[in-house]
Backbone:
Protein backbone atom coordinates (compact mmCIF):
# COMPACT_ATOMS: atom_id res chain seq x y z
CA UNK A 1 0.00 0.00 0.00
CA UNK A 2 1.07 3.54 -0.73
CA UNK A 3 -0.31 6.59 1.08
CA UNK A 4 0.63 10.17 0.52
CA UNK A 5 -0.14 13.80 -0.16
CA UNK A 6 1.13 14.31 -3.70
CA UNK A 7 2.83 17.57 -4.64
CA UNK A 8 0.37 19.18 -7.03
CA UNK A 9 3.00 20.11 -9.61
CA UNK A 10 4.16 16.52 -10.17
CA UNK A 11 1.01 14.49 -9.47
CA UNK A 12 0.83 12.97 -12.96
CA UNK A 13 4.46 11.84 -12.91
CA UNK A 14 3.97 10.15 -9.53
CA UNK A 15 0.77 8.44 -10.70
CA UNK A 16 2.61 7.12 -13.76
CA UNK A 17 5.41 5.81 -11.49
CA UNK A 18 2.87 4.03 -9.31
CA UNK A 19 1.20 2.57 -12.40
CA UNK A 20 4.57 1.31 -13.64
CA UNK A 21 4.97 -0.53 -10.32
CA UNK A 22 1.40 -1.82 -10.16
CA UNK A 23 2.43 -5.46 -9.72
CA UNK A 24 4.05 -4.59 -6.38
CA UNK A 25 1.05 -2.68 -5.06
CA UNK A 26 -2.48 -3.53 -4.00
CA UNK A 27 -3.76 0.01 -3.40
CA UNK A 28 -2.85 3.64 -2.96
CA UNK A 29 -4.60 6.27 -0.87
CA UNK A 30 -3.55 9.66 -2.12
CA UNK A 31 -4.41 13.32 -1.62
CA UNK A 32 -4.37 15.49 -4.73
CA UNK A 33 -5.89 18.73 -5.92
CA UNK A 34 -9.69 18.29 -6.14
CA UNK A 35 -9.85 18.95 -9.89
CA UNK A 36 -7.22 16.27 -10.53
CA UNK A 37 -9.15 13.76 -8.40
CA UNK A 38 -12.29 14.62 -10.37
CA UNK A 39 -10.46 13.73 -13.60
CA UNK A 40 -8.93 10.55 -12.14
CA UNK A 41 -12.24 9.04 -10.97
CA UNK A 42 -14.49 10.32 -13.76
CA UNK A 43 -16.55 7.95 -15.87
CA UNK A 44 -17.30 7.91 -19.59
CA UNK A 45 -19.70 10.65 -20.58
CA UNK A 46 -18.37 13.07 -17.97
CA UNK A 47 -16.64 16.32 -18.97
CA UNK A 48 -13.67 15.28 -16.81
CA UNK A 49 -13.20 11.86 -18.44
CA UNK A 50 -10.04 11.78 -20.51
CA UNK A 51 -6.44 10.65 -20.78
CA UNK A 52 -5.75 10.80 -17.02
CA UNK A 53 -8.94 8.84 -16.22
CA UNK A 54 -8.07 6.08 -18.69
CA UNK A 55 -4.40 5.98 -17.66
CA UNK A 56 -5.22 5.48 -13.98
CA UNK A 57 -8.28 3.26 -14.38
CA UNK A 58 -6.61 0.78 -16.73
CA UNK A 59 -4.70 -0.37 -13.62
CA UNK A 60 -7.78 -0.58 -11.42
CA UNK A 61 -10.71 1.39 -10.03
CA UNK A 62 -10.30 4.74 -8.29
CA UNK A 63 -12.83 6.34 -5.96
CA UNK A 64 -13.00 9.62 -4.07
CA UNK A 65 -13.07 9.26 -0.30
CA UNK A 66 -13.40 12.87 0.93
CA UNK A 67 -12.53 16.48 0.13
CA UNK A 68 -10.85 19.00 2.41
CA UNK A 69 -11.20 22.78 2.20
CA UNK A 70 -8.12 25.03 2.13
CA UNK A 71 -8.78 26.02 5.78
CA UNK A 72 -7.86 22.46 6.83
CA UNK A 73 -4.19 23.28 6.22
CA UNK A 74 -1.72 25.78 7.58
CA UNK A 75 -0.88 27.75 5.61
CA UNK A 76 -4.02 27.23 3.53
CA UNK A 77 -3.47 26.45 -0.15
CA UNK A 78 -5.52 28.16 -2.85
CA UNK A 79 -7.31 24.91 -3.76
CA UNK A 80 -9.43 22.16 -2.26
CA UNK A 81 -7.79 18.76 -1.80
CA UNK A 82 -9.38 15.34 -2.31
CA UNK A 83 -8.30 11.98 -0.95
CA UNK A 84 -8.94 9.07 -3.28
CA UNK A 85 -8.32 5.32 -3.20
CA UNK A 86 -6.84 3.50 -6.19
CA UNK A 87 -7.07 -0.30 -6.13
CA UNK A 88 -4.54 -2.00 -8.36
CA UNK A 89 -6.21 -4.89 -10.15
CA UNK A 90 -5.19 -6.81 -13.20
CA UNK A 91 -8.53 -6.17 -14.91
CA UNK A 92 -6.99 -5.19 -18.26
CA UNK A 93 -3.74 -7.19 -18.55
CA UNK A 94 -3.70 -7.03 -22.35
CA UNK A 95 -3.56 -3.24 -22.11
CA UNK A 96 -1.00 -3.11 -19.34
CA UNK A 97 1.39 -5.36 -21.26
CA UNK A 98 1.31 -2.92 -24.21
CA UNK A 99 0.60 0.22 -22.19
CA UNK A 100 2.98 2.53 -24.08
CA UNK A 101 1.32 1.82 -27.44
CA UNK A 102 -2.20 1.87 -26.00
CA UNK A 103 -1.63 5.16 -24.15
CA UNK A 104 -0.23 6.71 -27.33
CA UNK A 105 -3.53 5.71 -28.98
CA UNK A 106 -5.51 7.16 -26.05
CA UNK A 107 -3.59 10.44 -26.34
CA UNK A 108 -4.57 10.51 -30.02
CA UNK A 109 -8.29 9.92 -29.45
CA UNK A 110 -8.42 12.52 -26.67
CA UNK A 111 -6.23 15.03 -28.56
CA UNK A 112 -9.26 17.24 -29.13
CA UNK A 113 -11.94 15.95 -26.78
CA UNK A 114 -14.84 17.75 -28.39
CA UNK A 115 -14.08 16.33 -31.83
CA UNK A 116 -15.75 13.19 -33.07
CA UNK A 117 -13.50 10.19 -32.45
CA UNK A 118 -13.19 9.39 -36.17
CA UNK A 119 -11.91 12.92 -36.84
CA UNK A 120 -9.14 12.54 -34.24
CA UNK A 121 -8.16 9.21 -35.79
CA UNK A 122 -8.15 10.73 -39.28
CA UNK A 123 -5.96 13.57 -38.01
CA UNK A 124 -3.54 10.87 -36.80
CA UNK A 125 -3.24 9.57 -40.35
CA UNK A 126 -5.54 6.57 -40.21
CA UNK A 127 -7.49 6.17 -43.47
CA UNK A 128 -11.26 6.80 -43.20
CA UNK A 129 -12.12 3.33 -44.55
CA UNK A 130 -9.95 1.72 -41.85
CA UNK A 131 -11.54 3.85 -39.16
CA UNK A 132 -15.04 2.90 -40.34
CA UNK A 133 -14.16 -0.80 -40.38
CA UNK A 134 -12.50 -0.71 -36.95
CA UNK A 135 -15.40 1.22 -35.38
CA UNK A 136 -18.02 -1.05 -36.93
CA UNK A 137 -16.18 -4.14 -35.70
CA UNK A 138 -15.99 -2.60 -32.20
CA UNK A 139 -19.71 -1.70 -32.38
CA UNK A 140 -18.93 1.98 -31.82
CA UNK A 141 -21.23 4.65 -33.24
CA UNK A 142 -19.30 6.58 -35.93
CA UNK A 143 -20.44 9.86 -34.32
CA UNK A 144 -19.01 8.97 -30.88
CA UNK A 145 -16.53 11.10 -29.01
CA UNK A 146 -13.71 9.47 -27.04
CA UNK A 147 -15.08 10.87 -23.78
CA UNK A 148 -18.21 8.73 -24.21
CA UNK A 149 -16.39 5.39 -24.45
CA UNK A 150 -15.41 3.14 -21.55
CA UNK A 151 -11.85 1.81 -21.47
CA UNK A 152 -12.99 -1.58 -22.76
CA UNK A 153 -14.46 0.00 -25.93
CA UNK A 154 -11.33 2.09 -26.46
CA UNK A 155 -9.27 -1.09 -26.05
CA UNK A 156 -11.39 -2.98 -28.59
CA UNK A 157 -11.09 -0.14 -31.08
CA UNK A 158 -7.32 0.03 -30.50
CA UNK A 159 -6.97 -3.72 -31.08
CA UNK A 160 -9.02 -3.46 -34.27
CA UNK A 161 -6.83 -0.64 -35.56
CA UNK A 162 -3.67 -2.53 -34.54
CA UNK A 163 -4.85 -5.49 -36.61
CA UNK A 164 -5.14 -3.41 -39.78
CA UNK A 165 -2.43 -4.21 -42.36
CA UNK A 166 -0.92 -0.70 -42.24
CA UNK A 167 -1.14 -0.30 -38.42
CA UNK A 168 1.67 -1.02 -36.02
Residues:
Amino acid sequence: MVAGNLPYGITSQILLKLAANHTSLDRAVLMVQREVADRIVSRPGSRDYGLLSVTVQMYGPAEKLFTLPPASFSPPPDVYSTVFRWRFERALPSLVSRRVVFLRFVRTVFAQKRKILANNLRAAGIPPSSISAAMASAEIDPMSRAEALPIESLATLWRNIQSLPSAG
Q: What stands out?
A: The chain has a mean pLDDT of 91. The first strand starts at residue 2 and ends at 5.
